[in-house]
Structure formats: C-alpha cells, structure tokens
Amino acid sequence: MSRTTAILVITLTALAALLSGCSANTPPVDTVGTVAFATPLKIPPIAESVTDATGRRTVDLTAEEGESRFTTGTTTETAGFDGPYLGPTIVADRGDHVRIRVHNALDEPTTVHWHGMHLPAKADGGPHQPIDPGDDWAPEWTVDQPAGTLWYHPHPHGETAHQVGRGMAGMFIVREEAEAALPLPREYGVDDVPVIVQDVRFDDDGGFATDGGDYVGPLGDTLLVNGTVGPRFEATTDVVRLRLLNASPARVYRFALDDGRDLALVATDGGLLDAPFATRSVQLSPGERAEVLVRLAAGETVRMQSHGVDLGGDGSNGSNGAADRFDVLELVASDTLRTAGTVPATLVPVQRLDDLDATAERRFVLDGKQINQQKMDPSRIDEVVTVGSTEVWNVRNNMAQPHSFHVHDVQFQMLTVEGAPPPPELAGWKDTILLRPNSDYRLIMRFDDYADPEIPYMYHCHLLVHEDEGMMGQFVVVESGDEPAVPDRHGGHGG
Ligand code: C2O
Ligand code: CU
Ligand code: CU
Fold this sequence. Notes:
Helix content: under 10%
Number of domains: 3
Bound molecules: CU-O-CU linkage, copper (II) ion
CATH class of the largest domain: Mainly Beta
Low-confidence stretches: 9-25, 488-495
Shape: globular
CATH superfamily of the largest domain: Cupredoxins -  blue copper proteins
C-alpha cells in the first residue's frame, strides 16, 4: 500500500467512525466467538410462599447487599433479593391473592415495582412507596391478567439505574388455565427457562463500572444471563421455551440463533400472542420481555447471539450500541431429548381493544429528556384517567436518539407505528416499547379497576438513566367525575 493510499484509508476509516457516531477510541463491542460458555446457566430459584387460611399467599423478599463472583479472581459488590444478585422468580396463578412482604436490608431507601402488573396504585412500588432501610412493605393484590412474563425491580426516584445496575431485579411469572391448556413447555428451569440479560463493564477492581455511556446511558461489554458470565444451558427436551427479559439499563438487544434458524415468538410483555410468529430475531429494549420456543435436535449445540440491533435514525446510533455484537447463551442438547411440547398453530386469542371505544386521547412528546416539556415532579399529577375507560395515547419520540415508553398498571396494544399497523412482534400485549427516532406510536389501553385519586402510577422512558433524570410523568385513575387528591397539581390536565 502506498503512503498516500494508507493515509486515504486511515482518513476514510476515521470519517466512517465519525459518521457512525463511534469515536475512534470506542470501537463497537464484539464478543462473538470469544465467549467460552463454560459455566452452567444459573436458574433463579422459585420464591417460596406460605398460604394462610384465607387463601392469601405470602412471599417474603429481602433486598440486600452482597458480593458476587462472576469471573474467577474478582469479587463485585452487588445487590439483590434474598441473595447477592438478582432475586427469586415469583410464580403466581391468575386469581391468586398475593402478598409480598419486602424487607429492606440495604442501607438506603428502595422500592419494589411489579413491572407489567395490573394492581392498585398503592401496591405498584413506584417512587411513592419508598421502603426505608430496616423497614418492611407488604403490598397485596389479586393477580388478574393473562399468563405472561413480568418482572420486579426497584423504582426509587432518581436511584433506579443505580439499584437495578447492582443486580436488583427478578422475574414474575403469571400462569393461567388458558395457557396451561396449550402444549407449551412449562417445567421451570428444565424446558421453561428464565433468560435475564444484563450488560456490565468491570472496572480494574472487579466492580461494576458506572461511568461513561453515551446518550442512552451506560453500555457494558460483558453480558450476564441470570448473573452468569458465559452461560451454557443443557437442554433435555426437543423444544425449549426461553423467557427473555432485557433487564439492562440502556442496551437494546436483537436475539437470534447463530445458525439463523427460526424462533417461534409466542408471547410479548403482557402475554401470549394469537399465534406463534416465526422469526429469526427478537429485539428487546430495556424492560421488554418475549417468550420464544427453540426447537433442538439431539446432540447439537446452538448459540444465541445479539446483533443487528435496529435503533432507527440516521445511522448515528452506533454510539448507542447498535453496532455491538454479543455471544449470549449456549444451548447444548443432550444426546436423547424428551418431547416437551410442540409449537402450536394457535395460542390464546388476544382480545383486541377498539379505538371506537376510546373516550380520551392524550399526547406524549418525548424530547430533551422530558415528556411534554416537563420533568417528573412527584407532587404534580400530569394526567387524570377515569376508571373503566379506554384511552388512546399518542406517543412521539421527537429526537434523533432512541427512547422508550413504559406505562404502569396496564398492558396496551399498538394501533399504529408511523401510521402503519404494527408488525406481528408488536401486535400483542405490551407495556414497554422502543421509540425509534422521530417516530409516532398510537397505543390503546383500558384502565380497569383500582381508582385511587391520591396515589399515581408512572409512565416513563425505561432507559434507566433517562427515567432517573426525570423523563417520567404521573397519572391517577379516579372514579368518574373525581379530582386527583394530590396537592400542588399545577400543570395537571384531564382527558
Ligand atoms: Cu420497569 Cu416504571 O418500570
Ligand atoms: Cu413498570
Ligand atoms: Cu429516554
């Protein structure tokens, strides 16, 4: 190569890096082919519960600090529930009356939010239900929603990224008869497997680095699946159901198998789709879940990876992780496999919400880490919703960077994305969606039950640093004609 050519190549490379938004010293992360997959995938235990004479099931959870060893030789200060990292999986049937007694053994206040759950605002575990160090909080409610993969995590105002980033998160599985009647794998940890994905970066002392990060927030270079680095799962069945949860603060993943085989997407955030959707990849932004079925042949090894993330926009999202590639999880099939289920032709019909039933329409514009030009103010109620009503929420990301949108209490359906019907993977029940740059989403939701004029639910960007910076608003659900009872409601407006 001549000197002139070499200079030209260097210049073009630098220019390309500039255009893709990657500075020259932060090339995309690429762990494909470098992960050893030497450690069995940890499976969080199922939380124990005690049922009293009234039929109420109590689960005890303790939020605590601890130390974790993710790789040999290093110790990381972490936090979790009933252990040093993550928490047990809570499993409940639709109709169960659950009570969860949370003890805060941390030395700072926390909250525990049941992400995706339809429940009373006072049980929601958002910023208005703080638990001081040493205190207990014991919300209870009756689980009444379709079978699905939910999760729980702290939600203290301004501290969510810090606490979730140290490991505080767990899965919450709802089961019900309609789901149980389908020939789906459902033996927890055997053919029905939690896959909680987080990205971290270790500093020189083995701790989690919390600095850095571009617009979306901190992005790691090492993946943990259920707290396991380089996880390998030994499958003993011909179909495995993976419950994918993106519990990362900022990173978006696009999960696919390394040989490009189809996954059968059977459920999104709030439950089953009408029918499995065969797809090569499933993209999840922070807080989103998906259930996929993977078919395996005896004796084979396949790897789940993440690459090809589509954050939209003008190509400047390389610095937000769009160009990164990861090895995620190795699936090793035994030499003989049991039959665990099939990929059914249909699942459970999703009851469609109809925009003709909507009695209110609202608009939310995300811009400058604000929603509708305001930062979250715990003393301001932004929206007042009438219990029992159906509403259309028009959500716009007004920026060249990605954001996301999560609504507490309800599962919603997407009416349109950029004016078009949603793709199959966004056509089911959702509570969190990625908002692509400069894009409009039309969502429909019904606010059944649990009027409370005093205690709000949240809606927010689920990129945790944005949420902590106040990209969040509050709504109350009230009886028809009621006013919110929260003081200082300047800026509040009804439907
Ligand atoms: Cu997953 Cu308001 O949270
Ligand atoms: Cu939530
Ligand atoms: Cu955001």
